[in-house]
Amino acid sequence: MEQTIIFTDTIGVDDQYKPQPSLALIPDWYKKTESYIGGEKKPAGDANTTATVKRCMPVFDAFTSGYLLITNVDIYVSKKENLEGKTEDWYEWANQGAITFHSREQIPLHPKVTTTFVPKWMNPWGIKTPPGYSTLFVPPFHRELPFSALPAIVDTDKYNPPVNIPFVLTDPKFEGLIPAGTPIVQVIPFKRDGWVSKFGTEKDFKEQMGLTSKLRSRFFDSYKNQFRSSKEYK
User: Fold this and answer.
1) Which domains does the chain possess?
2) Residue 27 to residue 204: CA distance in whole angstroms
3) Helix (H, G, I), strand (E, B) or coil at 205
4) Average pLDDT over residues 33-58
C-alpha cells in the first residue's frame, strides 16, 4: 500500500532546493561507472562475472531509498583563530540562517565530535508521516561529501515541525564552498514494528543454502531478477 510523506516549507525555499526522491540525485561516480569491467558482459573465468558495483542492487537500493534534503544556500567553510589563539572552523552563508551551533558540552563524548562547537543544519522542512511511521535521518549513502550528519530517528507521525541536523566535517582540514543543492541528509520513512531476535535452526541454514544455490544459478543480475522487490519513493 502506498503511503504519503509530507514536506512543509517553513521559510519559503526556492523550488530548485526542495526535498527530492533520492533516485533523482544519483551520484556522479555511479553514473560514470561501467556496468561491466572493460564494458564486456561475460563470465570472468573464475565462476564470477565482470559485473561491477553498478549491477549491485543492494547498493542501488541504499542510495536511492527515501528522500534527500539539500542545502538551499551556499555555505563557505574556512579556518580562523579564536581569542585563545586556537584555530576553529568558520562558517559563512548568504542568508536564511542556514547553520546554528551546539556547544561541545552538549555532546561531550561523541567519538566524531572534536571541535569546540558542533554545527547544525537548520532544516526548513517539517516532515509528517502516517500514523505508526517514523523517519530515519542518515548521511546520504555512498556519496562523497565534506561533512557527515549525525544519524537520528524522529517519530514524525507525532512530531512534524522541522528537525535540525547536527553534523561534523569528514575532513577536519576542509576549507571551501558547499554549494546550494548539496545533499545534507537522507530521509527514510519506516514503519515502527516490535521485533524479537532469535538464532536460526538447521532448517533455516538449509533454506539459506538453497537460496545461495539459486542465486549462483545465473551469471547476470541474479539477485535483481529472482529476489529483489522494487521500492518506490515519489
Assistant:
1) 6-26+64-193 (2.70.40.10)
2) 37
3) helix
4) 88
